[in-house]
Structures are given as structure tokens and as C-alpha cells.
Write a structure and sequence with these properties.
Blueprint: H1 10-20, E1 24-30, E2 36-42, H2 46-52, E3 54-56, E4 73-77, E5 83-84, E6 91-100, E7 103-104, H3 109-122, E8 126-140, E9 146-148, H4 162-167, H5 169-181, E10 186-191, E11 197-202, E12 205-206, H6 207-227, E13 231-233, E14 247-255, E15 258-259, H7 274-294, H8 300-303, E16 322-324, E17 331-333, E18 339-341, H9 350-366, H10 384-389, H11 399-407, H12 410-416, H13 424-440, H14 445-451
């Protein structure tokens, strides 16, 4: 059912906090990189928190569009996002929106998504999303390198490995219990395609809530892993030879209780409506640009590569195509009136990523963009000449090329909005190009191995 969660009142929160024995709240928000920042607020100050927010020096809190001379930001809690912290019964959390001097702050990722969701509602749509968050459990060695936390996880094809699940049962079961205790509906936990990699799924809901949950889930997995002497990472490609971490988005648009993507009489046999096909058309049209937001790091493009999907290699297609339940496509149609984008990765800011894919899809609906025919083939087996002959385009090969596509896409630019004296896209691109430059200027061990004695 596609209805936004009814907001509790302050008295509802106060009553629940008392019943649970909660003594403190985290007032939490994220920056461009989705890094969570927070203040710890005593429960006695709930009224002040709701009225005035928690104050921060924004420039110190990461990439949130502030300079040192700016006034403080105020993190205003969304009461609907109240989340008891399962492993600490005296603590609760709110996801917050950022305000500056009483006005919404246009560099706040959550605010950017809220504005785009409102635009969708004006057109009669509620954007529903489920996210599949993959992660590795590793240990960091003294020299800074990493190794798998489970030294026995050595199978060549470890996906769904029963023994790997068993050895990590205590950790995975604890996460699952907490997720279900929060009412999120954890329905599957599995060993993923790479050694040391796991995925724990929970039920889809409205996009804002899903993104709030994604932020908390990553925080929860990180925290619990530390308690077990491990490090959890959602980094897209922590190991050169293993599958990377995706954050696949499963998307649909709803009108009340009706999934407007679903059509059981679809002549193509994919169970999709005309609206869904136009949405796909928009995703394909803008994919080269929005990938800069949905795969937003240098490391992302080491996950996104052309190659065969052998276990321990890649399930991350770079081909801008769609097809029925076909994992070699960028867009998979797994049934039940939804579209899965498999190129989104674990480093994305879910609020920004949801904003750009929704904007792309809405553009497809508004302009009735034809997605073309679905691609039924195994794209990993097609040669470069075959791909060209079939008109299959590829995503940008690196972050620099992605930012070049991003900055010239007017639909994505409009969706991300305007800052004080620049579009958010220009701010985002500037930050990401600085990231690219830091990477590009660093001499790597590979270069020494390849070139040191050759020249």
C-alpha cells in the first residue's frame, strides 16, 4: 500500500520513549557522501529538539554546502523516522532535515529527495523502493590492507554457501532479529557471490522511509561488526578479484493501493504497464548522467566493468538495456510490477540516488519515451561488434566521464535543485572531480609493477 507513514506526535514519541526506557536521542543527518552525523540529545530536551532542532557547524560536518563563515545548520527531526536502537535500549534515533535560519537547506540530500517525491505526488504517484545492500566482513591488517574476516571462506563459487552462513550465523541472526524487531520485514539473509560477502533484505516501502532505513542499516551493520572484532564495508569494490557491493534499487510507482507499473495483460509478457515502460525509457535515456550519482566514487567504476559473470568476478552490467529477469542487463524486470537497477552501488547516497532515478523515470513518463524492445540475450557473451550492431550503449567507464555526462543533463540538474549561487549538480561535480584528481595524482603499486623497469 503506497501511503506515507502517519507522523506520530511529540506526545506519542515521549510515551514510547518512557515505555522503552529511552534516555537519549540521536538527531542524525547525512552529507553528500551519506556519512551520518549526529548529536546526542537527552530525552528531557525532546520539545526543544522538535522546535529548534539540533545545531551543528555545517562546514565541520562534511560536504553539505557550507563554508566556515556560514551560520549553523539545524537538524530538524522527522518524527516518522523515530527508530529505537536495538542494541542499546536507552537510545533512539531520528532522521533529520537540515534548515538554516528557518529555511530548508538546498544542499541537504534528504530535503532534495523530499522535493522530488512531492513533484511525483503532484503527478499522482508515490515512489516505492526496496534496496538490496551488499557488504563484506573483513579485518584490517597492521599495514592497512584488508583480509576476509572468515579465513575459511575460500570456495571458488561461494554464493549461498551453507557453511559460510553457519560460521557467521550469530552475526547475521542478530542483524535479522534487530531488523524484524524494528518492523522492517527481513525476509532473506544470504552469503553473496563473493567470499566474505553478505546481503540481508527487508521489505520495500515508500522511498523516503527506505532511504532512512538504508542509512540506519549501514550504521547498524558497521556498529555490530565492530563488536565482533570485524569491519563491515559497503565499498563498491574492496577486492580486485571479487564481486563488488551493489545497492540494487527495486522501483515502482503507486496510486493509492494500485501499483501503476503492474499489468498482467502486458503483450510483451513482462507484467509491465505502459507507464512502467516509459519509466524504463527515461532510465535508459538518463543512465549515463545519473550513474555519476548512483555510482559516485572512483572505486564504483572498478565494480562496473565489461566482463563475464563468473563467481568472484562481476554481476554489475554496464550495458544500458533492460530484460526479463536477466542479470546481464542494467535494468532487470523480476516480475510483480517493478524495475530493478543493478548498477547502483554501496557507496551511493540513497537520498540522492533515489532522486535522480525518479527524475529520470518521470521524464520518461512525461515525454512517453520508448525504451525499445527488451534484450533477451546474455550480454556477457556478445562481442563489442555485436553490442554496437544491436545499438547497446555502455555506461561511462570512470567517475570523470560520468561527471561530464551528469553536468550536461538538464533533467537531473533540475531534480537536484539550486543551491545559494549554483546548482547542486555543479557543487556535486566539483566535489567529485576533486576526488578524481586526488586519485589520479596518486602513483599506485600497479603502476610501479607495470612501468618501473619497462622504461
Amino acid at each position: 500500500m503506497a501511503t506515507a507513514t502517519t507522523a506520530p506526535t511529540v506526545e506519542d514519541i515521549r510515551r514510547e520513549a518512557k515505555e522503552r526506557g529511552i534516555e537519549f536521542f540521536f538527531a542524525q543527518f547525512v552529507d553528500m557522501y551519506a556519512r551520518p552525523s549526529a548529536k546526542l540529545v537527552p530525552v528531557q530536551n525532546l520539545d526543544d529538539l522538535v522546535t529548534d532542532g539540533a545545531g551543528f557547524a555545517g562546514f565541520a560536518a562534511g560536504e553539505i554546502g557550507q563554508v566556515p563563515s556560514d551560520p549553523d545548520i539545524a537538524a530538524m527531526p522527522d518524527l516518522r523516522s523515530f527508530t529505537p536502537v536495538p542494541w542499546e535500549p536507552t537510545l533512539g534515533r531520528f532522521a533529520c532535515d537540515i534548515y538554516v535560519e528557518g529555511e530548508e537547506w538546498p544542499y541537504d540530500p534528504r530535503t532534495i529527495l523530499r522535493r522530488q517525491l512531492e513533484r511525483a505526488r503532484e503527478k499522482g504517484f508515490e515512489f516505492m523502493m526496496g534496496l538490496e545492500l551488499e557488504y563484506f566482513l573483513v579485518r584490517q591488517k597492521e599495514d592497512g590492507s584488508i583480509e576476509l574476516a572468515d579465513p575459511l571462506d575460500t570456495l571458488e563459487k561461494p554464493c549461498y554457501d551453507l557453511n559460510g552462513l553457519t560460521r557467521n550465523y550469530e552475526f547475521l541472526a542478530r542483524v535479522s532479529r534487530y531488523v524484524n524487531g524494528l518492523g522492517w520485514g527481513n525476509y532473506a539473509n544470504d552469503h553473496e557471490d563473493a567470499n566474505g560477502q553478505f546481503e540481508q533484505n527487508f521489505t520495500y516501502t515508500d522511498a523516503l522511509t527506505s532511504c532512512d532505513r538504508a542509512i540506519f542499516f549501514r550504521y547498524m551493520v558497521h556498529t555490530l561488526a565492530e563488536q565482533y572484532g570485524r569491519t563491515a564495508t559497503f565499498m563498491p569494490k574492496p577486492f580486485s578479484h571479487l564481486t563488488g557491493n551493489g545497492c540494487h534499487f527495486h522501483m515502482s510507482l503507486w496510486d493509492g493501493d494500485t501499483n501503476v507499473f503492474l499489468d498482467e495483460n502486458d503483450p510483451r509478457g513482462m507484467g509491465l504497464s505502459e507507464t512502467a515502460y516509459h519509466f524504463i525509457g527515461g532510465l535508459k535515456k538518463h543512465a549515463k548522467a545519473y550513474i555519476g550519482v548512483t555510482a559516485p566514487t572512483v572505486n564504483s567504476y572498478k565494480r562496473l566493468r565489461v566482463g563475464a559473470p563468473t563467481s568472484g568476478a562481476t554481476w554489475s552490467p554496464v550495458y544500458i538495456t533492460y530484460g526479463w529477469n536477466n542479470r546481464t542487463q542494467m535494468l532487470r524486470i523480476p516480475g510483480h510490477g517493478r524495475v530493478e537497477d543493478r548498477t547502483i552501488d554501496g557507496s551511493c547516497n540513497p537520498y540522492l540516488a533515489a532522486t535522480v532515478v525518479l527524475a529520470a523515470g518521470l521524464d520518461g513518463i512525461e515525454n512517453r519515451i520508448d525504451p525499445g524492445d527488451p534484450n533477451p540475450g546474455n550480454l556477457y557473451e556478445m562481442s563489442e561488434d555485436d553490442l554496437k550492431r544491436h545499438g547497446v550503449e555502455l555506461l561511462p567507464a570512470n567517475l570523470l566521464d560520468a561527471t561530464r555526462e551528469l553536468e550536461k543533463d538538464d533533467v537531473i540538474r533540475a531534480a537536484l535543485g539550486r543551491g545559494r549561487d549554483e546548482d547542486y549538480v555543479d557543487y556535486f561535480v566539483r566535489v567529485k572531480r576533486e576526488e578524481w584528481t586526488r586519485y589520479h595524482e596518486r602513483v599506485t603499486p600497479w603502476e610501479l609493477t607495470e612501468y618501473l623497469t619497462r622504461f
